[in-house]
Design goal:
It is built from five helices and no strands. By secondary structure, the protein is mostly helical.
Length: 127
């Protein structure tokens, strides 16, 4: 999606992908064992939601390239954290491997889109 077509952060394809993935994780994590409530379940929900929250902040920081890139980096960190929690969920047999791979690939896509935005940061900055 080009910048001209994007009016809000929610118009970004990457935001839509991240939001859908976070909602998938929320629904799937309802089936995690009760003993994981305050560890894996909480952590994977927080990191997946933080990707979306950081994207919102990225959008608002477009006046300052350094702040824009820094917030994009925060977003990448949360996406990577989510991938790590997905690996744990699969290894602990809370998610089947196919579902884990699909979600992991969603976060690979999110990470790739972040890299493109960082490389082209000057195109996103409000002059």
């Amino acid at each position: 999606m080009t910048r001209e077509l994007v009016r809000t952060d929610r118009d970004l394809e990457v935001y839509q992908t991240a939001f859908a993935a976070a909602m998938d994780i929320f629904e799937l994590s309802k089936q995690f064992p009760q003993e994981e409530k305050y560890s894996l379940t909480d952590q994977i929900r927080r990191s997946s939601r933080s990707v979306c929250a950081n994207l919102g902040e990225v959008w608002r920081k477009r006046r300052y390239q350094a702040a824009f890139i820094a917030k994009l980096s925060d977003c990448q960190a949360e996406a990577t954290e989510t991938q790590i929690w997905l690996e744990f969920a699969v290894k602990c047999n809370y998610l089947n491997a196919e579902t884990g791979r699909k979600l992991y690939k969603d976060y690979d896509q999110i990470l790739g889109q972040r890299v493109i935005m960082i490389k082209n940061a000057s195109n996103w900055i409000i002059q």
